[in-house]
Amino acid sequence: MSVILSEAEAKALLQKVIKLSKADECEANLLGEIRGNIRYARNEVSTSGSLINKNLVVQSAFGKKVGVATIDEFDDASLEKVVRRAEELARLAPENPEYMGVLEPQQYGKSNGFFESTAKITPEVRAEAVAKSLALSGQNQLTSAGFLENRAGFSAMMNSKGLFAYYPSTGVNFSLTVRTDDGKGSGYVIRGYNDFSRLDTEAASRIAVQKARGSVGAKALEPGKYTVILEPTAAAVLLESLYYDMDARGADEGRSSFSKPGGKTRLGEKIVDERVNIYSDPAHPELPAAPWAGDGQPQKRVSWIEKGVVKNLAYSRYWAQQKGVKPLPYPGNMIMEGGTASLEEMIKNTKKGILVTKLWYIRPVDPQTLLMTGLTRDGTFYIEDGKIKHPIKNFRFNESPIIMLNNLETLGKSERVVSTESDQSYMVPPMKIREFTFSSLSDAV
Amino acid sequence: MKRRDFIQWSGMGVGAILGSSIPVIGRAVTPEELLEPAADRALKKRLADVALNAARAKGATYSDVRIGRYLQQFLFTREKNVQNITNAESYGVGIRVIVNGTWGFAATSDVTPDGIARCAETAVAIAKANSRIQTEPVNLAPQKGVGEVVWNTPIQKNAFQVPVQEKIDLLLNVNSQAMQNGAAFVTSNLFQVNEQKYFASTDGSYIDQDIHRIWPTFTVTVIDKAAGKFKTRDALSSPMGMGYEYMDGLASEKIPGPNGLVGYRNSYDMVEDAILAAKQSKEKVTAKSVEAGKYDLVLDPNHLGLTIHESVGHPTELDRVLGYEANYAGTSFATLDKWRSKSFNYGSPLVNIVADKTQPHTLGCVGYDDEGVPCKQWDIIKNGILVNYQATRDQVGILGEKESHGCCYADDWSSVQFQRMPNVSLLPGKEKLNVNDMIKGVEKGIYIIGRGSYSIDQQRYNFQFGGQLFYEIKNGQIAGMLDDVAYQSNTQEFWNSCAQICDKDDYRTFGSFFDGKGQPSQVSAVSHGSSTTRFNGVNVINTGRKI
Fold it and tell me: What residues form DSSP beta bridges with B470?
């Protein structure tokens, strides 16, 4: 049996599973994926691997008693076994007062996240892509360490009320760190696409090489508040912490940055600069995502922050019922709209500032204000009179994305980037921010 | 668990995102299935020989095989509710070979002679393919075969044999006690892991190990709705290489501290800690915001463990030093030239840090590592000087040593083993000293307890750490609770400011259950022991902001 099932094959298999159920309600989730990777360091391939994942998750419910079982074999006996086990576990389980029952059938929009170019990647194709990158560093006193990983797969779900959902997708991520052999310079690049034909490892590698060379001879600046230009790779990891916090329950319970004194939330309030617009849309052509959430709810275009105002927070079905509002699933992607300026133009229009290309080891310091800490890494530069003057030593920062988006100066063009903290892709513009807080210097290169 | 998952889990409040971010390896099973005995040892030996013979026949000069059964039971509760109970089993075989001086690895869940033979052939084929672009052959340190041996974590009570209901009752009681003492919200969890690993290699080793780990933890949240403020306090437990006996809460394993604080050694009183947590969280709401500046820090073992992990554990991993992790976790400031100089002052002369995979009750304690090397203890920092690293068989030769340190580990049968951190611990002070006497000697300081926010650069120079509880010390006395505290330092500067270490009676271990490393990321569990330690003149910042 193939790993990546067609919609019809997935539907037929799931129907078989649901038919076996003797519980009050049953929901089945099916996943099939093929992953491959190649890793290199010290200019040599270090490890490589591939993984086939196929998995059927069955959730059975008797009233509010819920049991979940999984299996990776799909013959009739195995299907019967996994359904019976889920039912057995449901009978043993304590009642879950937050169980909401399965959904009626839903309507889903279209989203194209599956590309043959990615699905047909072989180990040879991976090696070839990496060889192009290695060719640039092998010479020139540079040392490369990189990782290329591709995935092709599908997910599907069905429940005992007849809901059915199916979504095939592919993805490839490539990241590379190039260091000068004397250890004085380091550059980085990361790229992620659904369509492998968009990935040019050679062009990407040139960026890391350029940053590695350009960061040699860094000078120390005093820590303090600076105007910064965050490249999208740097901005993404800070925005991500804001996105993670956009849950209504935490805000209502008084324990998130979206909570307000007096037990209210910031929903409907302007919290950041009015040029900030953030939305999710599964049909976004650059950043496609599944048109349905894990529990079967449709994912639609949703505005989260519009002109700086919090328009929506995610409501689980349970919390929505408690609050008497419509449920809103946590989104599958996030798009921050940008402006029209290119990064070059943004640098050109900066009198004094710092170009930050990557941030590293981001950790929350205070969940109340979303204060985060972390460091710059792999290329940080001083800008003066519209030009990059020289590389600077890395800084530790202590900053909140909410404060940062209030101190917005300019937005550049939004582009697809991969978060170096979570591997998730986002649409993020480069952004110029005033009074960004650097609290100490780091000797790390 | 991937590191990023742990970030979310530890930092974002356990309640909201637990279901999606805790790594569950394997298929769901019933609690009864977790108690089924491991496969017969003679059968595993026969299957292992199939792998070794198949690899040899196809041209491998070395091979090892791991037949692994990995069991997990995770329990998640919130206030009065059980949110989730996960029982999972993962069973399969991982085979590693050297052909033409190059590593190859393959894994399969088809644990039959045919499945294993095919898997060995795949590993050989991968090694051959990769050997075409290999320039430096693998140099494997010799390891004499140990024959047929058995090693088990010395547990008193197998956690998997304790009825699930008893564990749920405990967690719900923890929640209820915290709520009665002022908590608005509380989540409590119990993680239990059992690795049943059979290792065999062409060196002539057949090693059967049964490894147990346990981690009870909670987060208590107190809310001041009118002021729009909330404060949390996490459990001061430690993940341990123990059975359910860790939950006994033995009075003999409690170390009394100032201000009613309790340190837990090899036995944990979860209910008592939850009550304290609720009371302390309330105090945190009105605690004084710290004035930034230089302070002498008195660091509790439950806090210092993470500082040791980040600033000594990771930088002395030899693979990082060599550049193998450059694209993700980073490299290290503790370069080979510093080690070769035999005079690199990592810390003050008081600082003695050992790597140890034999210390009882710790997460890193096993009989043999995942390449058949018997476990041992060795020095990393001796009287303040960097003297060694953590290495595997294929890297220890770089240090001029002939025997591996035994630091090889894979988090599952399907993952390839690589260098992972052993327990790395600070030895206690030789002079008689307890925490109360240490505090008496501090004029202007902060006493920090528990693991908080942590961040360090990719070469491990600059770090910033928070904590769970902060107490101001004024003229030798605790003057009250502080808030908004984090300290920043440089690793070498920090360890050279180490001024005093409590004696062995204060010694406890801290642990990390889901330490992430590698691409694709793997987790491992590791402990860090220490006694309460004083560091002079450390830079403290105020982290309070307004939005």
Answer: B448
Residue A222, pLDDT > 60, answer yes
CA distance linking residue A167 with residue A29, whole number of Å: 12
Q: Taking CA atoms, what residue in A is nearest to B466?
A: A365
Residue A307 lies in a domain: yes
Angstrom CA distances, B70 to A30, A191, A290, B214, B409, stand at: 23, 35, 32, 14, 14
ipTM > 0.85, yes or no: yes
A49 and A130 both lie in a single domain: yes
Within 10 A of A177 (CB to CB), how many other CB atoms are there? 29
Q: With CA atoms as reference, report the closest residue to A420 among B4, B464, B6, B20.
A: B4
- Say yes or no: B263 and B202 in one domain: yes
Q: What is the DSSP string of A244-263?
A: HT-BHHHHHTT-STTB-GGG
Max CA pair span of chain A? 73
* Residue A127: Cβ within 10 Å count: 19
Residues in chain A closer than 8 A to B129 (CB atoms) = 123
Q: Are B543 and A94 a contacting pair at CB < 8 A?
A: no
Strand partners, A178: A144, A187
Residues A343-360: tens digit of each pLDDT = 999 999 999 999 999 999
Examine residue B472 and state whether it is found in any structural domain, yes or no: yes
**How confident is the model at residue B24, as a pLDDT?**
55
Q: CA of B8: which chain A residue's CA is closest?
A: A244
Task: Pick the last residue of a domain from B236, B257, B286.
Answer: B286
Contact A40, A46 (CB under 8 A): yes
pLDDT < 70 regions, chain B: 1-28
Are A259 and B228 within 8 A, CB to CB? yes
Report the predicted TM-score, pTM, of the whole model to 2 decimal places. Answer: 0.95
> What total number of domains does chain A contain?
2
Q: Which of B15, B130, B460 sits opposite A45 (nearest CB)?
A: B130
Same domain for B175 and B311, yes or no, is: no
Tell me which amino acid residue A419 is: S
**Cβ contact, residue pair B462, A366, below 8 Å:** no
Rounded to a whole number, what is the distance in Å from the CA of A242 to chain B's nearest CA? 11
**What would the two tokens of residue A65 be?**
């008693």
pLDDT tens-digit readout, B115-134:
999 999 999 988 888 888 77
Residue of A nearest to B285 (CA): A368
Q: Is the CB of A182 inside 8 Å of chain B's CB atoms? A: no
φ/ψ region of B484 (left if φ > 0, alpha if ψ in -120 to 50, else beta) reads left
In angstroms, the separation between the Cα of residue A79 and the nearest Cα of chain B is 14
For chain B, what is the domain count? 2
Tell me: the pLDDT tens digits for A307-337?
Answer: 999 999 999 999 999 999 999 999 999 999 9
Read off the amino acid at residue A90.
A
A2 lies in some domain: no
Q: Which domain covers residue B281, as residue numbers? A: 3-286
